[in-house]
């Protein structure tokens, strides 16, 4: 529960607030970007304005649901109904109950006739177990990388699900039942490709739902509401920024119209050619910055 006695001083005056236990994961801001934004420190978030209507109050409630430190609350202490997983795309739900072990990363349930997928994992709760069960269970847990394993082991045990990860990040999920190797894409389920995208971590993977043209991008690529464009951040690259740029550049080989990141905002659905053009511009911009700071990327 959010702590009123620890309300961040940069919250806008009013009912809703973020307390100073915020870890700066950005999960809540990705849901309510017009309400919640970075503070002057650049490492925590606060309400930059209060909800102006019922629709915005609903967004604040959803933002509170995903906050891994339970840092979002109201001065009155009022309660609201627990929300079900949120519909992100056709048969794709953001699960909520983000785990502090994943620095607040989002996890997604994808309902498919060949078996449902869980992309990364939230904290384990009875409510989310029931929600997944009501939608047909979980056949596979597809981990993008070591940072966002969460309670994947508990969901795997509960549903008898296979767990997929790349060998370079395997130590974070020793219980994984399918370990991918190498740099080539591989089909991990009918119509689902795992694409090795090293950089953020050595074993980072993205998952492409070919028919739906949806790319789950993990921590390597997101949508920036301020730019209204694709974006990637060097300061959260833990392994190799040059490798991450190369991985992003290679994504132009694939057709997708929507990206769904583990950290960051979901993109609108765009024409695939427009998405590819935005991606190329982004890589060129980031590479130019890197070269100006460090010299040529090899």
Give short descriptive properties of this protein.
alpha+beta, seven-stranded mixed beta sheet, five-stranded mixed beta sheet, 23% helix, 22% strand
Helix fraction by DSSP (H/I, runs of at least 4): 10-25%
Average of per-residue pLDDT values: 95
Strand order of the largest sheet: 5-6-7-8-9-10-11
Spatial shape:
globular
Radius of gyration: 19 Å
The total beta strand count reads 18
Strand coverage percent: 15-25%
The biggest sheet amounts to: 7 strands, mixed
- Counting DSSP H or I runs of 4 or more residues, the number of helices is 6
Q: SSE order in H/E notation?
A: EHEEHEEEEEHEHEEEEEEEEHEH
How far do the termini sit from each other?
Answer: 48 Å
Category from helices, strands and their pairing: alpha+beta
Low-pLDDT runs of 5+ residues are none
């Amino acid at each position: 529960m959010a702590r009123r006695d620890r309300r961040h001083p940069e919250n806008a005056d009013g009912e809703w607030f973020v307390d100073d236990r915020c870890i700066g994961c950005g999960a809540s801001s990705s849901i309510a970007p017009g309400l919640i934004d970075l503070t002057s420190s650049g490492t925590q978030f606060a309400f930059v304005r209060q909800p102006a209507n019922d629709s915005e109050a609903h967004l604040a409630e959803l933002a509170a649901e995903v906050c891994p430190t339970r840092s979002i609350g109201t001065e009155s202490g009022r309660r609201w109904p627990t929300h079900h997983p949120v519909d992100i795309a056709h048969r794709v739900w953001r699960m909520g109950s983000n785990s502090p072990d994943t620095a607040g990363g989002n996890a997604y349930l994808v309902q498919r006739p060949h078996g449902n997928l869980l992309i990364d994992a939230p904290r384990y709760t009875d409510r989310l177990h029931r929600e997944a069960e009501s939608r047909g269970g979980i056949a596979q847990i597809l981990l993008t990388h070591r940072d966002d394993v969460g309670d994947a082991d508990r969901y795997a045990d509960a549903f008898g699900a296979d767990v997929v990860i790349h060998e370079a990040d395997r130590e974070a999920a020793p219980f994984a039942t399918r370990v991918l190797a190498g740099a080539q894409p591989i089909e991990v389920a009918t119509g689902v490709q795992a694409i090795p995208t090293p950089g953020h971590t050595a074993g980072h993977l993205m998952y492409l739902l070919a028919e739906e043209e949806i790319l789950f991008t993990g921590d390597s690529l997101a949508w920036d509401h301020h730019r209204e464009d694709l974006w990637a951040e060097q300061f959260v690259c833990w392994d190799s920024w040059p490798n991450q740029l190369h991985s992003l550049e290679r994504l132009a080989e694939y057709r997708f119209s929507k990206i769904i990141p583990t950290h960051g905002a979901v993109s609108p659905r765009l024409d695939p050619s427009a998405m590819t053009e935005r991606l190329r511009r982004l890589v060129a911009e980031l590479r130019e910055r890197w070269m100006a700071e460090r010299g040529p990327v090899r």
